[in-house]
TrEMBL record, chains A, B:
Keywords: Hydrolase. InterPro entries: Amidase, Amidase_dom, AS_sf. The keyword rRNA processing does not apply. Residues 25-416 form the Amidase domain. This is Amidase AmiD. Its EC number is 3.5.1.4. One of its GO terms (molecular function) is amidase activity. The keyword rRNA processing does not apply.
Amino acid sequence: MEYLTLMSAREAAAAIRAKEITLLELVDACLRRIDEREPTVNAWAFIDPERARAAARACDAAEPSGPLHGVPVGIKDVIDTCDMPTEYGSTIHRGHRPSRDAACVSLIRRAGGIVLGKTVSTEFAMYQPSKTVNPHNPGHTPGGSSSGSAAAVADRHVPLALGTQTSGSIIRPAAYCGVIGYKPTVGTFAIEGIKALASSLDTLGVLSRSLDDLSLMYNVFCGVDLAADPLPAREPRQVRLGFWQPPFGEPSRDADGLRLAITRLRAVGYEVAPAVMPDSFASLNDVHAALMAYEVARNHLYEYEPARRAQMGDSTTAVIEQGWNISFEAYLRCREQTRQAQIAFDQIAQSFDAILVPSATGEAPAGTSWTGDPVFNRMWSLLGTPALTLPVGNGPNGLPIGVQLVGRRDSDRVLLDVARRLERAVSG
Amino acid sequence: MEYLTLMSAREAAAAIRAKEITLLELVDACLRRIDEREPTVNAWAFIDPERARAAARACDAAEPSGPLHGVPVGIKDVIDTCDMPTEYGSTIHRGHRPSRDAACVSLIRRAGGIVLGKTVSTEFAMYQPSKTVNPHNPGHTPGGSSSGSAAAVADRHVPLALGTQTSGSIIRPAAYCGVIGYKPTVGTFAIEGIKALASSLDTLGVLSRSLDDLSLMYNVFCGVDLAADPLPAREPRQVRLGFWQPPFGEPSRDADGLRLAITRLRAVGYEVAPAVMPDSFASLNDVHAALMAYEVARNHLYEYEPARRAQMGDSTTAVIEQGWNISFEAYLRCREQTRQAQIAFDQIAQSFDAILVPSATGEAPAGTSWTGDPVFNRMWSLLGTPALTLPVGNGPNGLPIGVQLVGRRDSDRVLLDVARRLERAVSG
C-alpha cells in the first residue's frame, strides 16, 4: 500500500472519486507512515488517528463534495481550527482551541478535504526552532517556520500541507526538505484566522510534491480551475526567463540550484538572460527585517507581557526587542522604500515570465538549533511577489537543493506555467 | 460633575496625572452618563459597571503607567478582548470570549487606558444595522459600522473609542454623530486580533471629540508623541489645500459640509484650489465594492455554513453572495486597478497637504433600518489613504454635517496639521 502515500493530492482525489481506493485506505496509509516515521521526524503538533479514521469513513459514505474530496491535508499550527488545538508553536497558548475555523480551513472542508492534523510551526512562525527535523537527515534542520508542513509532505505523511510566509517560511523549508513550496502573491489566499506575525507581509501558501496540486488549491481557495483554462501554448524561445544572483549571501555555494536549473533549461532550448536589478535592491532585506520586527513587536504584546515573556525563546524575544527599538519614522521610511521598490520591480518583471534566483543558502544546515537563513526570501516577501521553489537535485551532503522562481504580482499563473516547464527540464 | 464627561482624553489624562481628579470620579461620571442615556442610545454591546469601577480603583492606586493612564476607552465589538465578550455584532458568536487581547487593546492597556466596555458594531462590521441610534435624534441612524463608538463618543459616554473602516465605517458614523473620525493610512495601527472583514482594506482608527486625542493615540499605538515634535510652522498661504466634489452621490445636498469648510478656510486666508482627478476614478467605488465582497465571502465561510447562515441579516448575506459571484479573474483586475489608482493618487496628492471632499451624503438619514451610504468613503478605503472627518455645523434637520480631509499615504501628520487649521477656521 506504499503507493498510496506517493500519490499527489490530485491523483488521490481522482482515485477516490473513481472508487479505485477508499479514503479510509488512504488515511490508513498516511497514518501508518506517520506511525513509522513521526518518532524520528516530529512533523506534527497534533494528530488524532481515531478522529481521522472517523472523518475518512464519513467522507467515504458521502457523495463527493468538491475538488479536494477525500484528500488529507496538514494545517500549520498558526492556522485556527475549531476542532483541534492551535498553539502557534508556543507554550503560552498550550491547549488553545479557537472558536472557529480560519477561512482557509473552511474552504478546505467545503471542498471535501480532510484536516488530518496540525503541523509543527516554529514559535509564532519566527526563527526559534521546534521539534521537527529534516526527514532526509535528522541531524539537519527542516528549515522554518513551516517546518512540520515541509517535513510531513517530504516524508509522505500527507500529499500537501498549508504553510505561511512572512520572511522565508515556505520557500526555505520546502527547499531544505526537497518539496515544492509556493507563496502566492500576497493577499491571494485568505489569511483570516491565521495568527498575525507581520500583517503587511503575512502570506498563506502551499507545500506539495506536485505542481498539479497548486492548481488544485487554486480551485479550493479562489474557485478557479487553472487546468480547465490553460494558458496559450508557447515554444521555449517565446518564454522570457531571467536569472539573478543577489549581491548578498554566499554565491559559490548558494548558486548550485540556480546554476543547475539554468543549465537544464538551456539544454532543452530555453534562453535564460540575466535580469538587471537596481543597486538599491541590495538594501531590501534590511528594509524587510526592520518592517517585520516593528509589526511583530506590536502584534505580540499580549505574549510579551512580563508574566508570559519567560515562555518565549531567545530568538523570538530578540525580534520583538529589535521591533521596539525601531521608530515610527523609520517604519514609515521602510514602507516608502517598499512602495518604490514594488513599482520598480513591477516594471522589471514585465520583461520576464519568471526570474530564477536561489531558494536558500544551499542544503539544509547541520544541527537543529537554527532554521537557516531567509536571506534569499526576505525581499520577495517584502515586494509581495509570487515565489515558488522546485527541487532540482542534491548537494554535496546528499540533501535537497532547490531553485526559486519569482514573478510579477498577480502573474502567478504564468509563474506556475514556467515551473512546469522547469520541472520537465529538470526531470529530463 | 458633568464637566468630567466633556473632557478630552488628553485633558482627562493630564487631570488624573496632576491628581486634580481621580479615575474613579471620571469613570463614575461616564457610568452615570451611560445610565442616563444608554436606554435611548444603545451604544454598548457590553459594559460592566462594577468591573469598570474596580479597574478605576486599581488604576488610581497605581503609579501613572503611560500616556493614556486612567482614560476610559470604548472598544468596537469586532476587536478581541480577553476579559470581555466579543461577538462581532452577530448572534452566531453570542457570548464568545477570545483567549487573548487584540494588539491595539494590549497597547491601550500598556499605556494605562481602561477598557470601559465594548461598543456596538453592525453585524460583522458590514451594513446590517444594530441597536444603536443617533444620539442627536433617536429616529435617525448613527451610521455604521462603528455605530456604538461614534454614538458613545458623541454622547459623552467616553472621551474616545476605537473604530474600524473597510468601506466607510469610521468616517460615515463620525460625520453623522458630529464627532471626529480618523482612519489612518492602511496598516498604520496594528489590526492583529480584529475580526477580518476584507483583509486588504481593513483599517483601525479612532473616534474622538478632540484632535489632540488623535496624537495621543499615535503615542499609544506608534510610540511617537507628535506634540513633542511639531511640524515646521507655516503661513496659511504656504498650506496647499485642494477640494474635490466626486462625480457621484448627490452634489446639491452632499456638498454642504464641503462648501462650508472651503468658505471658512478662505475667510481666514487659505487658498483652496480644485483638485483634478482622472476620469477613471469614477469607477473606484465599484472596484472597492467588488474587491471587498470577494474577500468578505471567503472570510465569512464559517459563518455562512448552512447551520449558521440563518442567523445573518439580509444585507450581510447579500454582500457574501455578491462575493461568491465575483470571479478570481475579476478580483485580480480589481487589484490591478487599485495599484494603478494608488500610483496615480500618490502623484496627485504630492501637490496638496490635504484634499477636502464630502464626508457623507449630508445629515444622517431618518430611520434606523439603514446605516447610510458609504459612497464618499469607499475609494479612500480602497486607496489606503488617510482620511479624517471633522464636524463643521448642522444641516437643515439640525443634525451634524462634516467635511472629510484625505491625503497621501503615510502623510498622516500633515493631514492632522491641516485638520487643526480647519478646526480653528470653523470655530472662528
